[in-house]
Structure formats: structure tokens, C-alpha cells
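Record type: ASSEMBLY
Status: queued
Input:
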Amino acid sequence: MIIDINFIGLIIASIMASAVPLILASCGELITERSGVLNLGVEGMMIIGAISGFALMTVTGSLIIAIFGAMLAGVLISTIFAFLTQTLITNHVATGLALTIFGIGISAMIGKNFVGIPGKEFPVLFEGLKDTIPLIGPILFGHSIVFYFAFALPFMTNYFLKKTKIGLIVRAVGDSPVSASNQGIKVRFVRYLCILYGGAMSGLAGAYLSMIYTPQWIENMTGGRGWIALALVVFSTWNPIKILIGAMIFGGLTIIQFHMQAIGVRIPVQFLTALPYIVTIIVLVVISRDSRKIRLSTPSSLGKSFHKDN
Amino acid sequence: MNTNLKISNVTKIYPGCVANDNVSLEFNSGKIYALLGENGAGKSTLVKILSGVIIPDEGEIYLNKNNLKLNSPLDAKKNDIGMVFQHFNLFETLSVFENLIIDSDEKRESLREKIDSIMKKYNFSIDLDIPVLNLSAGQKQKVEIIRCLIRNPKVLIMDEPTSVLTEQETSELFLSLKKFSEEGILIIYITHKLKEVMQLCDEVAVMRRGKLVSVSEIKNENIESLANKMVGQNLKTIKKKKAKTSSDQLIKITNLNFTSDDPFETNLMDINFSVNRGECFGIAGISGNGQSELFQVLSGEIISEKEAIEFNNNYIGDLNPQERREYLMAFSPEDRLEQAAIPQMKIFENVALNNFKSSNFFNNGLINENKIKEHSKKIISDFNVNTDNIELKSQFLSGGNLQKLIIGRELITSPDLLICFNPTWGLDVGAINYIHETLIKINEQNKSIILISTDTDELLKLSDKISVIHKGKLSKIMNAEEVTSEKLGILMGGAN
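Status: finished
Output:
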């Protein structure tokens, strides 16, 4: 049997495609958490992004409006979270959970009119180059702009946090909001921006699902990817490059276990379905074992409210 | 250039407390100023106003005749006022350099050069590229000082800077401060330690209960005069009357041993002593020689053999602290906010904590809040705790007030024996005196004390019998009159 080498390339490309929403949402949440805010509403923000993107695409016909509209929807819903946790000083965990429940509910409501409507084809870049190089061609070329953005994002996030002044301020706020405030940094303002950025990335992740990955609206179509994104952030110990690794493993196992189910491997389906979750977490725990590094990259104030007065 | 800083009629009122009451002060560069006061006197509030962290209700601040509006820490920085806080304002997980560059507008390279030249000039040596959490307290303080110096401050405020430093680090700090002052930086030094004021400063302003009580030159003052101003009354020199000789034995420790699994703890070896009624038994030693383990064994946090501790003719070595309290023992541990009280709980809730069994406080598992509050008010007035709000969270009490509350809580059940560990650690003169008087009173009521302390003066003042603990072993037991602090020092070093 001759396996077409381009077929392997296609499988790898499909693994990467399935990792895209995880990378986007995780990198957004990573910035939010680095500033000390724990937003458990990723799943909710993603699904809002998914329905907004799909609805805007159907109504306006414009992909650009739909993509940016989905990001804006993510920003808007995360504004609710930011207002509650930063201005009204509510508990991060409870507010985040409420946000997810709210997002799932409202997306189902809006989405009623969009069930069964076919999506549009999303333009891909470098389509012509796909067949020029074996194996590498299908991996590198012929993807949407969002795909390329997602794979650049972990590196940009890493650069932002380590090399830029604003990145340093974000880390400082997450490390010690009291010290930051005493240094004249506007802690709440920084945290607001980080929350809104996280919302935009989750919105984009959702739009990728409903407009590019599986171009249609299905209720609850994020299917827990928001929670996986959250887990990736924690188990990667707030390191964007490890998020990329984790997302690839998760995406890879998801695709492979589909194929295994299709071939009819004699392993219980439930186990296969659970496999990506288990393996991803184990791998990330193993590569992030160094407790000193964990201590250094964990935002010390994560999930704690900050009051100006003390 | 001369710097003149003027505080004019500053008032800051918090609910239930006037932190600064119409305070006016003037400072000129070239001198080191001390701002002296007990905990809670309002000195920290005043310097936080100067550094823009707190906005005053009334009053003005002038720097070289310019009226400053300090609405945020940034405003203070822009106006060349630098401040080193008592609790460091550093980002532990960031590197030293990142901590320094975060509020600087300079380029990386030029900032690095500047930091290097500052470190060279003042003989600091700190690795700029390691995370702050790997530094010692003294090094962290130097990072804070460098952070201020980068901005060429006109005014440098140090808030209780020596509370976390070793002797060696303290003298290094004083040298640097004198150098800064010679270079024309106006230095304001906040403290409650009288010795440091005499050693370092040129002028001293004393605050008490939010008010400025005096401004004077150091050469016209001495430790006693400053202490009296700080406390507001002539401090009595406390002297203990010789205890009535009692042979009525209250507690007897026999062949007590404790072996720990934790390599950082000290093993206790063959501890033997007894305390009679009305006696104070002092245990001296350099910290870390088994005091904390001994306290825990005596209080029941660590359980020993039943027969090792005999109290009032009962063997109680295997009882937990709660059960020991029922035999009328009481405890005041070393760490007030970690071991003795729960910081986030209100005063009256903390009062109830050592008395779960009391039917007064709890009926059928329900809390009788009124009874507890009544009881708390009694403690607060009997033991001079400076607050009238029993709903206040304990973490907002000053160290002295919290210690008074804890001792009060323990004593109000009139126990036969109080075991205390460093009861006056970190307190100001007024509170120390009060605690000492209270402890003497206990002995006069024919009740006993075991006093574990690292403060030799305190032990000599209060104890009837003294022993020294070294590497988990007790020295021979001596009568307090026969002991001098030199002799204790030798025993504490491990010699015989």
C-alpha cells in the first residue's frame, strides 16, 4: 500500500486547524490571567463569538464585518465581566461561571433562526502553492488568515510579555496589584484592558469554529473547547509556547481518535474520546514540573480582587 | 540646592479614628529627621500622604514653596519625593531589573548604566537579572532605595526600614542614609525604635494619637525623654517585687523529649523543670534553639508522653490545647497574626475562639453573639485595647493592641498558668510596659507564668527563676537575682 505523502500533510494540517480555536482562546485568557484576573467565562465568550460571527455573516454577507463583529461581541460580553469583577469587585470564579452560562443561553436564543443555514466559503491564502512541495505544501499553504494569525499568536504573546514595557506592566499587576498601584500603575485599567483582550480572542476563536472550521451554526457548538483552553493556560504554567504544544497534542489526539473510531479499533469509544483530555494534561504537567519556574510564572494575585484602599 | 518640605495643617479622619489631627511640620535638606511614635500614632498615615498613597481630608503640602497636589503615588514621584515602604513594594516574580525599569522612562541600556553607577557609588552589590524573590530582606530594601535614587529624589522617606533587617544590614543602611543626607537629599526616617533615632537622626518629631506633640533637636533629648513624649506619660520603671516564697508546685516537666521529622525543627532533649504558684519561670535563648517546639509541647499543639507533664497533680502530656485550657492553662503564642488570632475575623469572633466549651458563648451549637460581645467589651476596657469597635477585623489592630487583646482573652478566664512566647516582640515602649505590668500582676495574684523570650532584659525584669535553652537542651535553673545578662549571653552561646 502506498500512502500518499500529501495525505499525511493533510492530516497534520487538519490537526493544526483543530488546534486553532484553542490557541486563540488560551492566548487571550493567558493575558487576562497574567494580569491577575481569572475569567472562567471563556466557553461563554467563545460561543457568543461563534453565533455573532455566523449571524453577521448571514445577515450582512460580509466576512470582514462578521470576523470583527465576533471579536467585538467577545469584547462586549467580557465588559460585563470586567465591570462586575473590577468595578463592583465581585468574585472572579462565580462571575466567570455565570458568564459561561449566560453566553450559552443567549447564543442558543439568537441562534434559533440560524440553525440549518449553510455557511459561506472562507477565502484561503496561498492555495496555488499547496501542491508545489510534497508534505510541507498542504501543511503550510491554503489556510485562512485566522489560521496563520493563530500560529503566530503564541510567539507574539511571548514577545509581548517578555520584551515590551506594557507586557512587563501586565505581569507586574498580576504579581502584586498593591505594589503596582503604589508605583502609580492604574491596576484596574490594566486589568480591564486584559479582560477585554481575552474577550476579543475568545470571540475570534468562536468565529473560527462557526465560520471556517465547520461553517454552520449548531447549538452549543464550542463543545467544551473553552474549558480546554482554560486548562491549557494553567497546565502550560502561563507559557504561550507550551500552550501551542498542548493545543497541538489535544488537536492531534482528537483527530487521531476520530480516525481510530472510524477504522474500528477495539478500544471503548468513551476511552478514545477521553484520551485527548488525559494525555494533554499529563504531557503539560510533565513538561512543566519545575516548581521554581511555576512559582515564577504563576500570577501571584490570580483570582484575587483588588481594592484601591488597602 | 536646599530642599524645604512643609506640611501644613494636615488632617485625615478614618471612621472611628483621627489618624492625623492638624499636623504641621517643616523639614530642610542636610539633616536626617526622625518621625517617632508608637504603633498607630499616625506616622505611617502622614508619610503615605506625603507619597500620594493616601489623600488627606484637609491641609497642604509645599515643596520649596510650591503647593503640591498629591493625588497618586505618581504625583509624588514626579515631584521628586521617594518613599521606601515598610512592606516592600516589589514584584517578587520579576527580575530586579524589570522591577526597576517598570516605572522608568529611560532606555534599557542607559538605565542599566545608571543603576550600575548608583550601586558602585554606594557599594551595593545586587544581581540585576535574578528574580526578586531570591533576594534577602536587606537586598530587597536596597532595590527599593535604588528605585528611588534613579529619579534623583529631593526627599527620601523611609518607613520603619529596620524592622526586617539584621544588625549588620542596619548599620549598612545607616551609613548609606548619612551619605544621601550629605549629598543634599532630605531624609525622613519613621520609626518607633528610640535607639535608632539617637544613633542616626538630627531632629526628631514625635507623634501621639494622630497629633504632633513635639519637635526638637536630638542633642537636647535622650532615650528616656523621647520615650516619655512618645507614650505621653512618665514611664514608670517597672520593678518586680520579690515573689513570696511558695513551695506549692503547679507544673512539673519530667524527662520531656521531642524528636521531629522536620529537619528544620529542633529536637528537645530531656527537659526537666517545675514552676511553683506565683512564680515566673523564664526561658532564655537565641531564637531557633527549640523555643518554638517547647512552646508547642507545653501548649499541647505537639502531644508528648502523658507522664511528662504534670499539672496540678494531673498528668496532661497527651491532652490537646483545648483540653489543657480546661485545666486552667492559657497560652500566648509568638506569632500574633498567624497563631494567636485569625486576621480576617472580627475582634469578638477571635475572643470566642479559645473558649468553645463555654456555655455562655455557645448554646446548643449556636453562637450567642451578645454574650461574646459583652465579654469582648470587658476585655477591651480591662486590658486597655485602643479601639471601641469590636466588629473590627483583627488584622487592623496594631501589634500592641492585638497582643493586649490576646493576653486579655487568655487572662479573663483567670487561668492558673500562662505560657507566653515573646509576648512583646515588635511592640512599642508603651505596649511593652503595659504587658510587663500585666504579667507582674498575674504573679502577684499567686498565678504562674512560663515566659519563653529572646529578650534578655525582659527575662531579667520579670522572672523569678531562669534557664537557658540551647540546641533543645535546658541549662541549669538559676535564681533570677543571681543572674546577669552577661552570664545569660554566655549560656545562650552554648558554653557551660
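Annotation: Chain B touches chain A through 20 residues (CB under 8 Å).
Annotation: Chain B has 17 helices and 23 strands.
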